[in-house]
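A quick word before the example. In earlier lectures we treated sequence and structure as two separate objects. From today on, think of them as two lines of the same record. Here is NOXA1 oxidase written that way.
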Amino acid sequence: AFNRTVAKDNSLAVGFFQRGFVHLQLEMYEEALSDYHTAFSHLRKNPFIDYKQLGLRHILYAWEVLYSMAAVQCRLQQWQEARATLEKAVVWRPEGRTAVLDMALEKVQNCLVLEPMQVPLGEFFRPRKKEVEQLDSKDFLGKPKVISSIIPNDEYFGFEPLRLQKQSFYEPSADALR
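And the structure line, produced from the sequence above:
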């Protein structure tokens, strides 16, 4: 499902983030690391992306992506890289809230594996009702009208195939001549 999701929208950072978590669960560490790198690059140097507008009640933070990336690096026994990634995550973490990352740095120094971050269980994309109602087709143009015709007495509204020509139909009326 995540493969199809990121194939339809390859800029969906949260899709890569969640697929990275699934790859990590399946012990596909290289794929997980690649997905976390992609998710971080799709944040486009923003500290977070708020997906509430799309119907997912979750905010994906850059530091969470980096933390999960460090968790994969721990499983690959890349302790120096994990430490560098966590130090990068400290820069992206909001001010005064680095306790989680400080504990993670201590674990990495002691060569202990980190548990990755994930979107909370039970969170799904659910667009708001008013947004889904707007998906119905709307007629913005209205009924078509003929506003100009080369036929002087033409009162037809709409479109139709060519009509049979009648005798004296194309001649202007007596009122039009005056």
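Notice the following. The longest strand covers residues 48-50. We will return to this example when we discuss secondary structure assignment.
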